[in-house]
Design goal:
There is one protein chain. This protein is an alpha/beta fold. It has three domains: 93 residues, Periplasmic binding protein-like II (D-Maltodextrin-Binding Protein, domain 2, 3-Layer(aba) Sandwich); 78 residues, Periplasmic binding protein-like II (D-Maltodextrin-Binding Protein, domain 2, 3-Layer(aba) Sandwich), CATH 3.40.190.10; 81 residues, ACT domain (Alpha-Beta Plaits, 2-Layer Sandwich), CATH 3.30.70. Helices cover 28% and strands 33% of the residues. It is built from nine helices and 16 strands. The strands form three sheets. Strands 1, 2, 3, 4, 5, 11 and 16 form a seven-stranded mixed β-sheet that branches. The radius of gyration is 20 Å and the shape is globular. It starts with a strand and ends in an 8-residue tail after the last strand. The relative contact order is 0.18.
Length: 286
């Protein structure tokens, strides 16, 4: 029986491509459950509509996706694994459209942020944020004109028979890190593992020194540390923290338990295999 995996966005989005690559060695490809928002993504798994979800956690250029980090704390799901998908944004228009004609560009806010310099160099172009990259191509195919364009994957352009005007719009190494969430397998493959946590701290600047010393005393390698203001809560911060090792290891578990001393709350997101950099392939639709 095929797994059902929820994504935020439509078919042709980078989230779908992440699912296809993660399960590329399976005989049966997962069924994709498109969701408009990240809240709906988590709902799909909690409500049993999907077996799991592929959630983007951070981008190498635009940074962390804070809404997903928030939901990992508020509506926890098991973390099965991760991958880092190379992102190649394309400017997509109707067949025959040329770059100089474009006056209106739609895409997801993350994609717009990753292509900010390219968009800045376009003359007299209005930028509109929408819920999804592939969704922007759907809108283009349904009601777009010669002055409209979308930023999305080449897959989305092919799926909707649209024209790729320009490729690789972002600068630098563009990868998005995805987490596969949910009880989608009995065992997790991979030897090198990491543990992800979110600490809630009243004063991160003062408290982080003690946290880092504590982790160093337990010989834990810190892979990520990032502070984010908690909206609506005065002088309170979330700290996204990742360390090498798994909670099944005695020293790692002891170190994590000790973090409660330095924080108002310590949320264990999960221990899972470290992902690899993946080049997405064009999918052949039946």
């Amino acid at each position: 029986m095929s797994l059902a995996i929820a994504i935020q966005g439509e078919l042709g989005s980078n989230s779908e491509l992440a699912v296809r690559e993660f399960f590329s060695d399976r005989v049966s490809s997962p069924t994709i459950v498109p969701c408009r928002t990240f809240d709906e993504l988590f709902d799909a798994v909690h409500d049993g509509v999907a077996d799991g979800a592929m959630a983007p956690l951070e981008n190498s250029l635009a940074g962390s996706i804070h809404e997903v980090w928030r939901l990992l704390v508020e509506r926890p799901l098991p973390v099965f694994g991760e991958l880092r998908l190379r992102i190649t944004h394309c400017l997509i228009g109707l067949p025959g459209t040329e770059l100089g004609q474009i006056r209106h560009v739609r895409s997801h806010p993350q994609a717009l942020a990753q292509c900010e310099r390219f968009l800045h160099e376009l003359a007299d172009v209005e930028v509109e944020a929408v819920y999804d990259t592939a969704g922007a191509v759907q809108m283009l195919a349904k009601s777009g004109g010669p002055h409209d364009a979308a930023i999305a994957s080449a897959q989305a352009a092919i799926d909707h028979h649209m024209h790729i005007i320009a490729r690789d719009l972002s600068e630098g190494e563009n990868f998005t890190r995805f987490l596969l969430l949910g009880d989608v397998a009995a065992d997790q493959p991979g030897d090198c593992r990491k543990t992800t946590l979110v600490l809630q701290m009243a004063d991160s600047a003062a408290g982080m020194a003690a946290v880092m010393t504590h982790l160093q005393n337990h010989d834990l390698q810190v892979l990520k540390v990032e502070t984010h203001k908690r909206p609506g809560v005065p002088w309170s911060y979330d700290v996204y923290l990742e360390v090498a090792g798994t909670t099944s290891e005695t020293e790692t578990q002891a170190a994590i338990e000790g973090l409660h001393t330095f924080s108002a709350a310590c949320h264990l997101i999960g221990s899972y295999p470290m992902g690899q950099d993946i080049e997405p392939r064009i999918q052949t639709r039946s």
